[in-house]
């Protein structure tokens, strides 16, 4: 019997379901692929069980545990999911840059010593060795690719530079982001220097994730919608563009597969046209955007991902069926559509209700293509 070494990014099992890769590239699909942001998370009792005995970042740093959590939704929902996403967090980049981040149960991420002024740059590591600091994510990706057995493709991801900068200054979640945004007015040059430092690491990290086995990449600009259209153009878009352009250049020049990339800029409806011209195959939509409007603004040049309101999963099974059906129909049968929610699944959703959503999407999106 052949012995495959699960620590090596080679001899991966053959992919059996490439629906999401085809949808991303605008190829013909028999139905819309579906996956869920935060699908490996707190709404699953099996996640809670494992989490009881381990801290959040301990799990991220232990490839066996991160792999086990990534597989939980895939094992539970079987063929109802068309993609997996590696269990990790966007905040591993600020950690690699030298900032401490804690995950406080019931509160979320906390930076005990956030950046207060640009003088604090002295606390950041000058040259981050991405492999040394974040190699644990690569190991988790490689192991997961083997253990997935080719069932579905595996996403790697990062937080976009503006979103990470905001966390590094706010020190955690925030309603107004007034501390991070005040940097844009008080220290525009230093803000751009910080965004560039994050961008350089992000590029390296995404290339490393593909090398390790990631088959798609998603960039989360979760706090895009806190910026005005003008500020988005200045402090978010240029870095989002650099990331897709340079990652693809690097992948091609290193003879690696140039994998499809998704941009999710939550709240940035005004930027849809710009985002569709930013070298991403997929633009992800939050639930406030009408699919027809998005199709028009992106001029039908990209695949669209989304976008049921995550709280619709609290409406009961009949409402879920009705709302999911409407959503699938709104994206239409000819369009490139990857079904998802408009943001991450909330921690108190009943996993059986999510199942109804997945079943409905698969059924309806196949029916309208017959
Ligand atoms: C893609 C991803 C993320 N986090 C996690 C994953 C991997 C798992 C998956 O998606 O299935 C695990 C992931 N990350 C976290 C959890 C819960 C941690 C726990 O067990 O206590 C999980 C499962 C913790 C976390 N980490 C973060 C928050 C948000 C806090 C805030 O509102 O400011 C929280 C609560 C930061 C974070 N993390 C992430 C984002 C971008 C997506 C989004 O906008 O939701 C953001 C903003 C991305």
From TrEMBL:
Query: What domain of life does the native source organism fall in?
Result: Eukaryota
Q: What class of enzyme is it?
A: lyase
Q: Which UniProt keywords apply?
A: Cytoplasm, Decarboxylase, Heme biosynthesis, Lyase, Porphyrin biosynthesis
Catalytic activity reported: uroporphyrinogen I + 4 H(+) = coproporphyrinogen I + 4 CO2; uroporphyrinogen III + 4 H(+) = coproporphyrinogen III + 4 CO2
| Compartments (UniProt record) | Cytoplasm
The answer, when asked if Cytoplasm is one of the entry's keywords, is yes
Q: What is its EC number?
A: 4.1.1.37
Q: Ranges for the Uroporphyrinogen decarboxylase (URO-D) domain? A: 33-42
- Molecular function (Gene Ontology), one example: uroporphyrinogen decarboxylase activity
GO BP terms: protoporphyrinogen IX biosynthetic process
Could you name the Gene Ontology cellular component terms for this entry? cytosol
The answer on whether this UniProt entry bears the keyword Lyase reads yes
Q: Which Gene3D superfamilies match?
A: 3.20.20.210
Q: In which pathway does it act?
A: Porphyrin-containing compound metabolism; protoporphyrin-IX biosynthesis; coproporphyrinogen-III from 5-aminolevulinate: step 4/4
Tell me the NCBIfam families matching this sequence. Answer: hemE
Q: Which PANTHER family match?
A: METHYLTETRAHYDROFOLATE:HOMOCYSTEINE METHYLTRANSFERASE RELATED (PTHR21091), UROPORPHYRINOGEN DECARBOXYLASE (PTHR21091:SF169)
Protein family membership = Belongs to the uroporphyrinogen decarboxylase family.
Function as written in the Swiss-Prot or TrEMBL entry: Catalyzes the sequential decarboxylation of four acetate groups of uroporphyrinogen-III (octacarboxyporphyrin) to yield coproporphyrinogen-III (tetracarboxyporphyrin) with the formation of intermediate hepta-, hexa- and penta-carboxylate porphyrinogens in the heme biosynthesis pathway. Acts on a number of porphyrinogens, but only coproporphyrinogen III can ultimately be converted to heme.
Name it: Uroporphyrinogen decarboxylase
Annotated organism of origin: Parasitella parasitica
């Amino acid at each position: 019997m052949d012995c495959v070494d699960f620590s090596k990014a080679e001899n991966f099992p053959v992919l059996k379901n490439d629906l999401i890769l085809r949808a991303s590239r605008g190829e013909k699909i028999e139905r819309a692929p579906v996956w869920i942001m935060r699908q490996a998370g707190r709404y699953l009792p099996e996640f809670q069980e494992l989490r009881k005995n381990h801290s959040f970042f301990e799990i991220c740093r232990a490839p066996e545990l991160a792999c086990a959590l990534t597989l939980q939704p895939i094992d539970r929902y079987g063929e109802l999911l068309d993609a997996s996403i590696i269990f990790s967090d966007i905040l591993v980049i600020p950690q690699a840059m030298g900032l401490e981040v804690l995950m406080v149960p019931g509160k979320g991420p906390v930076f005990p010593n956030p950046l207060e002024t640009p003088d604090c740059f002295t606390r950041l590591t000058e040259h981050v060795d991405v492999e040394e600091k974040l190699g644990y994510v690569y190991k988790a990706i490689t192991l997961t690719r083997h253990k997935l057995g080719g069932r579905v493709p595996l996403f790697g991801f990062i937080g976009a530079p503006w979103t990470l900068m905001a966390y590094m200054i706010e020190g955690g979640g925030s309603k107004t982001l007034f501390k991070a945004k005040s940097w844009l007015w008080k220290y525009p040059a230093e803000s751009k220097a910080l965004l560039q430092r994050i961008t350089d690491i992000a590029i390296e990290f995404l290339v490393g994730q593909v090398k390790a086995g990631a088959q798609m990449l998603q960039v989360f600009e979760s706090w895009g919608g806190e910026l005005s259209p003008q500020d988005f153009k200045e402090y978010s878009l240029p870095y989002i563009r650099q990331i897709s352009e340079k990652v693809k250049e690097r992948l091609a020049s290193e003879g690696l597969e140039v994998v499809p990339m998704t941009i999710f800029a939550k709240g940035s409806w005004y930027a849809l046209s710009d985002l569709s011209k930013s070298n991403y195959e997929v633009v992800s939509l939050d639930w406030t955007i009408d699919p027809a409007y998005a199709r028009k603004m992106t001029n039908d040049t990209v695949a669209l991902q989304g976008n049921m309101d995550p709280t619709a999963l609290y409406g009961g099974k009949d409402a879920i069926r009705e709302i999911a059906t409407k959503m699938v129909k709104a994206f239409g049968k000819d369009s490139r559509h990857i079904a998802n929610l408009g943001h991450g699944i909330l921690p108190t959703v009943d996993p059986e209700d999510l199942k109804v959503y997945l079943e409905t999407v698969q059924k309806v999106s196949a029916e309208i293509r017959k």
